[in-house]
Amino acid sequence: MFNRFLASIGIGNAKIDTVLEKSRYAPGEEVRGVVRMQGGSVDQRIETVQLSVMTEYIRETDDHKHRHHAEIARFHVTKPFTLQPNERQEVPFSFLLPYETPLTIGRAPVWIKTELDVRGAVDPGDTDRIEVQPSQGQHVVLEALSRIGFRLREAECQYAARLGGRMPFVQEFEFVPTTQFRGQLDELEVTFFNRGQELELLLQIDRKARGLGGWLSEAMDMDETFVRVTFTESQLAQGPDAIAHQLADIIHRYV
Question: Domains in the chain, start-ordered, CATH in brackets?
Fold first, then answer.
């Protein structure tokens, strides 16, 4: 009885360790691994083993930035079972990394959180950081932007409930022009929306102020234009040069 009480407050409780097949993934890619469990000092009823894809975003209130955790997706990988004292079990799992997962570029951490839902006890947990690299389509667009002279300055997950869909945030990529649009733009912000067979971009084109009218426009936030553009898989398959040409044409219309 005393051992059961200790387990209920986390002493002598079950332990878990999640082992991923690898540490680098792209949105939409399959994540595989095993959850290793070891029983504690008493038998314990495990309601479920759940894996959550986690990240964090920034929300600004009253000129202060606050970091918040966000659960992108949750996966249950077992049915209820009883873990016996000192018993060892391994539960294999696989799931698709959600398209909404931000890239780990700049200040955007992503991790897998594993939890045992233990009846009447503190739930054991484990966290594993992963690297999220661009999907093939995102890679083509990023390379295209580089070819028309844009350098990535910052990437950050920002609170944007209206834009994020089921997520309270979007990941914004902030670029500065170095060649072709230098002197015409202050910056270009890009947000990706993976749609499976399509990749949608939200471009925020921030024009450089010119003369009194330009300064007034900048002061009133009228120097920014939002443009949505969608590329299909077949368009992206044409490569960075073709996408660079299309993006340059779009940007030219608004400078």
Answer: 2-132 (2.60.40.640), 136-252 (no CATH)
